[in-house]
Design brief:
The complex is a heterotrimer.
Chain A (H helix, E strand, L loop, with lengths): L1 H9 L1 H8 L4 H19 L7 H13 L13 H9 L5 H19 L11 H21 L3 H10 L3 H24 L2
Helix pairs in contact in A: 8-9
Chain B lengths: L1 H18 L9 H21 L1 H20 L3 H10 L4 H26 L15 H17 L3 H10 L2 H29 L7 H5 L1 H27 L6
Helix pairs in contact in B: 2-3, 4-5, 5-10, 7-8
Chain C lengths: L2 E5 L7 H12 L5 E6 L4 H11 L3 E8 L2 E7 L3
Parallel strand pairs in C: 1-2
Antiparallel strand pairs in C: 2-4, 3-4
Classes of the chains: A mainly alpha, B mainly alpha, C alpha+beta.
Chain lengths: ~180, ~240, ~80
């Protein structure tokens, strides 16, 4: 059995698609095709971080909180989404899919390894970075996908403005990283 | 000369190889195929209930697969020029912007000339102080956490403990952000303009302008990299 | 010809690349650096950076999801 799988993983075409990494440009073309496909078929471009706010609301409900009075969740649509639950939420399945797709890609390349948190620095970086991203994404109305990629492709000025300030943030982030998190 | 150096390096590395006992590698490919079957099974189950959910699930899996295979990282596109001067990811992102712009504009224009409502206009967002502050916060956050939203999800799939933690705090941060959105909306977003470029420049004008800007950024990124790397030969 | 090793196991981008850059600056021409990494992005961006700077690079997959990048400083 093992011999069969070893043979599969040595196959030229298998290596081409599943073992070796794609070039960045190949990735760009494929992502574009799927972006256009998701927009054409669902009427809405790809977004990632709006879903995280819903995940937050569900978590908050689990610990006894209530978000119904918040402006952000006050619309009828937002309330309906929250009441339908995570398993009926399209955006959540999209995000679960990203995790599953990446996992399968790594397994098919036989490169999976669980990487434990190594140091306190990483804990601080992940905590601080996560909080900043979460808050920032809500202010800007999305992340690198929704507010940047999908916005720019939707011919929206907001995407370009976000890009400029994102770059400024990344510049300062790089300085911080070099100074404190290495 | 170049070849000589290369053989030396090979001699050096083979020495290293001998000194290190090689572990027997496991083959994870069967688990990969099992994963593919599970993805299909989940899609079938979801499809019984609601076709749209299955569609989103499959799209998510495709995005995750592509992001991982290409190591496509929107964070790197903004960060690498600052840290290493490399712009290869930046240029790939610009290519994605250009292709997707053409496709999106076609879909939007198609709906427009047929008299329908233009889809996806919720992604034309207000330009306000919130956009600027949010952009800077997000930029700092993604660099120190080692991945943006899609990158974090992808790295959770790759088995990164650190990104599981940052995903959790991303969710917490989103919740805090959402709780303050009333204030931001009232003070900034409610009066801020939502600029859809075709409203200003016309459909053709907006498309041409945007592609030209992307093209110029591509050239600038390429020149910048060559300057930073001190590498003048074309490849 | 000296040999150096940097342990970047468990580090996320861009820390591995920054560590490699730092170490390379300290090394003399002809020295060899072995970067141990387990981040699949670093397996792409470290060799790219090193090649762009004209160094000799070799990648070896030492285990599932673990690589050693061998870089020889050439200038």
């Amino acid at each position: 059995m093992k011999a069969f799988w070893d043979k599969v993983s040595k196959n030229h075409y298998y290596k081409m698609i599943f073992k070796n990494p794609f070039t960045y440009v190949t990735g760009a073309v494929l992502l574009s095709i799927f972006q256009i496909a998701i927009f054409a078929s669902t009427g809405s471009p790809w977004g990632v971080s709006g879903t995280f706010a819903n995940w937050g609301a569900w978590l908050y409900r689990l610990v006894g909180g209530n978000v119904d009075k918040w402006y952000y969740f006050s619309s009828e649509g937002a309330q309906a989404t929250l009441n339908n639950g995570i398993l009926n939420h399209t955006g959540s399945w999209l995000n679960f899919g990203i995790i599953a797709g990446a996992l399968v890609a790594v397994l098919l390349a036989s490169q999976f390894k669980f990487k434990k948190i190594k140091s306190l620095k990483q804990v601080v970086a992940a905590t601080l970075g996560g909080l900043l991203m979460g808050y920032g994404a809500r202010l800007a109305g999305g992340c690198n996908i929704g507010a940047l990629y999908s916005s720019i492709a939707s011919l929206s000025l907001s995407g370009w403005v976000f890009a400029v300030f994102l770059f400024i943030g990344a510049f300062f982030g790089s300085k911080l990283l070099a100074k404190y998190f290495m | 000369m170049q070849e000589n150096a290369a053989t030396q390096s090979q001699a050096g590395s083979s020495q290293i190889r001998r000194s290190k006992p090689r572990k027997k590698k496991k083959n994870q490919v069967p688990f990969g195929f099992l994963g593919l079957l599970l993805i299909a099974a989940v899609a079938l189950v979801l499809g019984q209930k609601n076709g749209t959910l299955a569609l989103f699930w499959v799209f998510g899996c495709c995005f995750g697969f592509i992001l991982q295979k290409a190591r496509f990282c929107f964070t790197a596109s903004m960060r690498d020029p600052c840290i290493t001067g490399s712009t290869s990811v930046t240029r790939a992102v610009l290519i994605a912007f250009a292709i997707t712009t053409i496709g999106f504009t076609a879909i939007k224009y198609g709906a427009f000339v047929n008299g329908g409502q233009i889809p996806g206009q919720s992604y034309v967002m207000p330009v306000s102080l919130a956009t600027c502050v949010g952009g800077v916060m997000f930029g700092i956050g993604m660099v120190i956490a080692g991945g943006c939203a899609s990158g974090t999800l992808m790295r959770v799939g790759e088995g990164f403990g650190m990104q599981i933690l940052s995903l959790f705090f991303f969710v917490v941060g989103s919740l805090i952000g959402a709780s303050h959105m009333g204030w931001w909306t009232l003070n900034f977003n409610a009066t801020a303009p939502k600029v859809f470029l075709p409203d200003v420049f016309g459909w053709a004008g907006a498309l041409i302008l945007q592609l030209a800007v992307i093209g110029l950024l591509y050239i600038a990124a390429d020149k910048y990299e060559k300057k930073r790397m001190g590498n003048t030969d074309e490849d | 010809m000296a040999e150096f090793t940097v342990d970047c196991l468990g580090e996320a981008c861009p820390v591995p690349l920054m560590k490699v850059q730092k170490q390379m600056e300290k090394m003399a021409v002809g020295d060899v650096l072995i970067a141990q990494i387990d981040h699949s992005c670093a397996m792409k961006n470290i060799p790219e950076w090193a090649r762009n700077n004209g160094h000799n690079v070799e990648i070896e997959e030492v285990d599932d999801g673990e690589w050693e990048i061998v870089i020889e400083k050439t200038k």
